[in-house]
Design brief:
Number of helices: 9
CATH superfamily of the largest domain: P-loop containing nucleotide triphosphate hydrolases
Largest sheet: 6 strands, mixed
Oligomer: single chain
Helix content: 10-25%
CATH architecture of the largest domain: 3-Layer(aba) Sandwich
């Protein structure tokens, strides 16, 4: 195993044995052993073939192959029951794989289930010593770091109360504070941060961004914004198998697309992924631009029912001009050209503006207007949706617009066409970081200073 590789999985599989009753578990423990003892006699009477099993196999993981390089941050995503937690427990060493192997290069610290590694009868302080010793620290090392651990956890006098009296958020604070002080090479986090309050979550993410400069992180969660913002790559598990791995933004968008399609009761073939710079040509692909200023939708990952399609997009200012560069503060109009392939009621268009990492910056849709006006489209017609908004003062750089067209209500709708990267723009903010300062001057501040005077 190369020293540049922190985690290496080869043909990694894990099966759990499922018994229908306690009696079957007992039979499986006893009968095979008796059979092996009586095998010569059974063969003599012609019953030596075959062996009955009293369990069923559930494969939580199947033949996983992947590598995580030292210093890399990798997200593990997938639906509940896809094998994420099983994989993390194998990496931690608390589970043994059924086949294959996972090689780990470095000290591992993990925040898996809340309260794991804690004794509920012990106080928080006692559990710090217990958990730190499990993670490889001596008592002397723990004592030297105790003040810093308690400051990070920030749970006050509760540190000397039994952990069983803690809320889930307090337990998470203490657990994270410990793993943040054990000098780990590999950090594993399994959805635990979702429990904490917003203040502590931001504190943890700031620490994680510092840790990832030198350490390796496996981050498991359902928050795709957190995965995209924190991780370099992502691994998508589906029913225990490796469905996709690659750049975090690309994998997170693919996963979100398939989840949205499944929620609408559509088939997986309604999702088209952009991989390696190519995309499958969609039926009824956009023709040439219908008029000056319109842009055909570029190749992009997309999904939808296919009952309507966004073919073109146009971004203009309040005077109808198409800006080459945006600065922030402009009044803009985003227009979508839509082709309907079926009769549609309660039509709604929308957009999300994202930064280069795929993090949403702003967005909106026509839902409020649709409540007052039942926008309809007939099969074979072409329509235009116009949405006006004020561009905030954002940091300079490239931004992408995700475009959407659906029908229904906010809570119950069908997405006919969602384009992850339907339009790209560049913001050149003269303030660079998007800050718009408003200085409030007091009366004293308005008094000019004499440059010849002292003071």
């Amino acid at each position: 195993m190369s020293s540049e590789i922190a985690i290496e999985a080869r043909d990694l599989s894990k099966a759990y044995l499922i018994y229908n009753s306690p009696a079957d578990r007992l039979k499986q423990a006893v009968v095979p052993r008796l059979r092996r003892l009586l095998l010569p006699l059974l063969r003599a009477v012609g019953r030596g073939r075959g062996e009955r099993r009293y369990f069923q196999e559930h494969w939580a993981l199947r033949a996983l192959d992947f590598e995580v390089k030292r210093g890399e941050t990798v997200g593990i995503i997938g639906r509940n029951g896809s094998g994420k937690s099983t994989l993390l427990q194998i990496v931690c060493g608390t589970l043994t794989p059924s086949t294959g192997e996972a090689r780990i290069n470095g000290r591992v610290a993990a925040l898996l289930e809340l309260g794991s590694g804690f004794n509920p009868e012990y106080t928080g302080r006692e559990n710090v010593y217990l958990n730190a010793s499990v993670l490889g620290l001596t008592r002397e090392e723990t004592e030297a770091r105790m003040a810093s651990i308690l400051a990070f956890a920030d749970i006050g006098d509760f540190i000397d109360q039994p952990v069983k009296t803690y809320s889930s958020g307090m337990a998470m604070r203490l657990a994270f504070a410990v793993i943040a002080h054990v000098d780990a090479d590999i950090l594993i986090i399994d959805e635990a941060l979702a429990v904490g309050d917003a203040y502590f979550q931001q504190k943890c993410f700031r620490w994680l961004h510092q840790f990832r400069e030198n350490g390796t992180i496996l981050f498991c969660g359902h928050d795709m914004a957190a995965v995209v913002g924190l991780c370099d790559r992502a691994i998508w598990l589906d029913k225990g198998a490796l469905r996709m791995q690659g750049p975090a933004k690309q994998v997170a968008e693919a996963y979100s697309s398939f989840i949205a399609v499944a929620a609408m009761g559509l088939k997986d073939d309604q999702v088209k992924l952009l991989e390696g710079g190519t995309v499958e040509a969609a039926p009824g692909a956009a023709p040439s631009a219908p008029a000056e200023g319109w842009n055909a939708i570029p190749p992009s990952s997309e999904y939808g029912s296919g009952l309507a399609r966004i073919t073109h997009v146009r971004l203009s200012d309040a005077d109808g001009r198409q800006p080459l560069l945006l600065h922030g503060g402009e009044e803009l109009v985003l227009e979508l050209r839509i082709e309907a392939k079926a009769d549609l009621d309660r039509c709604v268009a929308g957009f999300i503006m994202k930064d280069r990492l795929g993090q949403p910056m702003l967005g909106g849709n026509m839902q409020d207007a649709a409540l007052l006006h039942d926008f309809r489209m007939a099969a074979g017609t072409v329509g235009t949706a116009r949405m006006g908004f004020t561009l905030p003062h954002l940091a300079s750089g490239p931004y992408m617009f995700a475009l959407a067209f659906a029908s229904g209500t906010q809570d119950n709708h069908v997405q006919h066409h969602w384009v992850h990267d339907g339009l790209s723009v560049t913001i050149q903010n003269p303030r660079n970081y998007g800050t718009q300062l408003i200085t409030l001057l007091t009366e004293a501040a308005l008094t000019p200073r004499d440059p010849l005077a002292g003071g």
